[in-house]
Amino acid sequence: DSGAMTALGRASGVRVGGWGDAGRAMRGPPPPLPVLFVVLVAAPGTRAAGYETCPTVQPDMLNVHLLPHTHDDVGWVKTVDQYYYGVQNELHHGAVKNILDSVISALRAEPSRRFVYVEMAFFSRWWHQQTNATQQAVRELVRQGRLEFANGGWVMNDEAATHYGAIVDQMTLGLRFLQDTFGDDGRPRVAWHIDPFGHSREQASLFAQMGFDGIFLGRMDYQDRELRKKKREMELVWRASASLQPPTADLFTGLLSNAYDPPKHLCWDLVCDHDSSMVGDPFSPEDNADVLIDHFLDVATKQVTGCPEPAHPLPSPQQQASGSPVHVLYSTPACYLWELNKANLTWSLKEDDFFPYADGPHQFWTGYFSSRPALKRYERVSYNFLQVCKQLEALAAPAANVGPYGSGDSALLEEAMAVLQHHDAITGTSRQLVADDYARRLAAGWGRCEVLLSNALARLSGSQEAFSICPELNISVCPLSQTSARFQVAIYNPLARKVDRMVRLPVSAGAFLVKDPSGHAVPSDVLLLPQPEGQKPSPELLFSASVPALGFSIYSVSRVSLRRSKTHIPQPISQKPGSAVLNIKNEHIRATFNLETGFLMQIEDLEQKLVLPMNQSFFWYKAGTVGQKISQSSGAYIFKPQQQKPLPVSDSAQIHLLKTPLVQEVHQNFSAWCAQVVRLYRGQRHLELEWTVGPIPVGDKWGKEVISRFDMPLDTKGYFYTDSNGREILKRRKKRESRVGENYRPTWNLNQTEPVAGNYYPVNTRIYITDGKKQLTVLTDRSQGGSSLQDGSLELMVHRRLLLDDNRGVGEPLLEEGSGSWVRGRHLVLLDAVGTAAAGHRLLAEKEVLAPQVVLAPSGSALYHPGATRQLQFSGLRRELPPSVHLLTLARWGPQTLLLRLEHQFARGEDSGRNLSSPVTLNLQNLFSTFTITRLQETTLAANQPRASASRLQWNPDTGTTPTPTVPPLDPASITLQPMEIRTFVASVQWEEFAWSHGGDPVQA
Ligand SMILES: [Zn+2]
């Protein structure tokens, strides 16, 4: 949470709205007025399902809906627990527990009052601490519609740095709590994203698919907001998918005129105690009721002018003076939305997104796309591990939960991951102590999942291996493989298709024999890589593994005595001016380096005969410095370079070359804090750039924002493309031939104040540029900010270290003194012809987001139980799914039910090579090997209502209304997926007795 919109220039992590009682618990007695209100003129009409409890409005009057609410950050300046209990109030005054206590008692005291609550991470905790009597009273308030849940996710998630899979998971978790606790009475109708720092189109698409009737947003670009107010387009229909058939992904969108704050002079919250209390006492000289009422009416009348032409005329000043036709009522977001819907107006249609967000000139919130890169990566690998954990819980249940290694489950990691989606968590905009707490939560969740994984692998493999994860493999640390002469490597593949993967493990010195599950030796190399100063070089074993769909392969590794063991060591390359070039290559790709600079200078696709010269290197933008007089500096949120031109980290890189039968690598050393390995594994169709950056030196008193930049001779005409939360692709434009600067936004004429920061967009998984023939795509391993600032140029911000706070409330510079200061990551580069590029980047991104999980065990273990057969290879699927289908979710849902999500991962018309954009039909019968589906029910995306009975309010965009398509009858033998469609099922299942535990044939991939 953040913002400089209050008069104090500070934001609050916990805002309580509503009447005096709610505020009274926090400070002195304020008068009964709300924090936020929106207004509408409408005639009362019939009630749609779910809206029966809405208050009655007055026809022919200006109906002012007061929406009492609270915005509770799930961690920001304080940790989640500090906010909940009200600890460390000197850091930030707020206690969510007290808000909920006082709100509930105030609701019970006065029947006309209403309140809206949003964040289930807090509410579910509070709920479990209440007595039965209080719970019963709250159920009644929910049934009466007086306590309304909006959004209902575990958190109000960020929209820029989040992956769609994690958004779906966190919404499912929160909405499930509401459904289990309150049934349909508690199901939110309205999404409520009043604080995220810009809004993604994919988020709107997901909300539409979850069945929401509309969304309200708080933040948008200041220029966009002013123009929309003038054009009466503060409310609109957002068409959030270019692939899904309208109105599937259409979402009614309301933009709040004053973000989450109350109107000026009407704030009696603890954060704005400069506003005078209302005194309604005619005998007091302090009586100010008339003044405040006039002001209130004035605000209400002005706010109406941002909305579409109302059906009824506004009250004139004369009317107001003689008893105004204004009707003020306590309401909720859903009830306000319901009135808008009944007004039966026509709305403008929006098809782009709300990025980037600026709250004023030179104030672009595009830094947070890259802030805290280590936490962003930890979150992404935790998403991967959570899916592995949930799949194994579904495949091996209940042996996964209780087994030889104790009790384990996915619930703790699921909750931790949900918390990480909060708009101050994954964004990197919390204080350091809070970021540490987020990481602690993830680690605790990993612990429970590790037990589950060991139990499940023991059950499925028939032997009790002491499986363990090496969490520091990214820095080549793994005690088990580094100290054992013999060990086993189990590789679990969470994809619904077989994968081949290079496995790289630190080992002790010597030669090794690696055997696949059928006992055949597989080729392997030992590499001896240079380590940072002071550490001795550590050998790494490299071999290629093949793993069946939704299953595992167990490889054995043993040290062998060979007379001539061959260890590969990177060789220094002499770099004389004018000397020849250097190549690395495999079957598919050749990468060429300039020996003078040591930089990558060309990439070739050998099959398609595509050649693309390029220059790739690292640069940094100068952020603010201490003592400098600047109105806005870069900080956790904001990117504000002091010069538009970045400085090179180095003019050249020292290089080493490593060539083995399995891999070819060029090691580039740019500076003491910036290095990169450019790598081609055998068989790999992409070039891998593994960069290591940090700790970024700030001894020169300059904050630095480091980018990796690719410059190519491609005529890209000012366009580039970025993904939206890892799913659909949005076309971005940086207009070239403009007289007013370098400006472009799809829906308005931008007055650009920041040519660099104002052209940065979130990149969750990929960014690409094309000249219409060739396409260069870069996949990221975490969310980053990226742009194309010149034709043929593409850049990604990999790390940032700042000395100043950016004045949006977090109150700390983004210094990251600890382990977060040193970051390693990968960019995967694909060169393709335009028509076949999607097949490359879609399937590669899927493999990266759900990468195989490598676990190790010492050799020589007991059987799972006497008579069990050891099983070194396993697949949870009887047949692979086609490449266009992604298994998005396979998880336990209840004692005998599973949650299953299948997704078409290609957009409409995107692939012209292999026809991967076509609809695809699947048979779910006999698909899974460890269970049989006995009953299948289709639900909306968050699994909180059956699809057949779900209906949404209809809205009329100015381009014409499309009727909602009817839902076809469900046939498990024939499930069709359209491009970009996700279908969600709750499946009743019966787990099979595993065939091999009776000595039968093992399940084969
Ligand atoms: Zn917030």
From TrEMBL:
Binds 1 zinc ion per subunit. The lineage of its organism: Eukaryota, Metazoa, Chordata, Craniata, Vertebrata. It catalyses: Hydrolysis of terminal, non-reducing alpha-D-mannose residues in alpha-D-mannosides. Belongs to the glycosyl hydrolase 38 family. It comes from Oryctolagus cuniculus (Rabbit). Pfam families: Alpha-mann_mid, Glyco_hydro38C2, Glyco_hydro_38C, Glyco_hydro_38N, Laman-like_dom. It is an enzyme of class 3 (hydrolase). This is Alpha-mannosidase. Residues 363-442 form the Glycoside hydrolase family 38 central domain. Keywords: Disulfide bond, Glycoprotein, Glycosidase, Hydrolase, Lysosome, Metal-binding, Signal, Zinc. Its cofactor is Zn(2+). Residues 943-956 have a biased composition (Polar residues). One of its GO terms (biological process) is mannose metabolic process. Necessary for the catabolism of N-linked carbohydrates released during glycoprotein turnover. GO terms for cellular component: lysosomal lumen. InterPro entries: Gal_mutarotase_sf_dom, GH38_C, Glyco_hydro/deAcase_b/a-brl, Glyco_hydro_38_C, Glyco_hydro_38_cen, Glyco_hydro_38_cen_sf, Glyco_hydro_38_N, Glyco_hydro_38_N_sf. Residues 943-970 are annotated as: Disordered. SMART domains: Alpha-mann_mid (SM00872).
